[in-house]
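Here is one chain, start to finish.
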Amino acid sequence: MQYALMIYTEPGYDEALSDVEREAVQAEYLALADDPRCVGFAQLQPAETATGVRVAGGRTLLTDGPFADTKEVLGGLCLIEAADLDEALELAARIPAVRFGGGVEVRPVGRAGVGPGVGPGVGPGAGVTPGPVVRR
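Its structure:
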């Protein structure tokens, strides 16, 4: 089964690390990315580079930066193939961010259009055709 490991960190958490510590952390992330159970691994750019997209009243609304002002931000994600939740949790515990005050949310991944509440025609935006784009 596939699991998404969503990695949350405090922005700039690694700035307090020495060059040697930073290189060791990078090596740990590379080792996880090279693990055969890892399907994909991505580090996200800072939250300030995000653009939020919402559709309301037939209009597409764009917002610069993160939607919420929070202490932790989604800093990366890893898609893994694991036999069960226990194996996924074991891999999540190896992610360096958890040792530096961050956290990892582990969530099973379903295929698009399969399962309850998933797929086209389901959810709050079902059947909405995006209208004009409005930047806030």
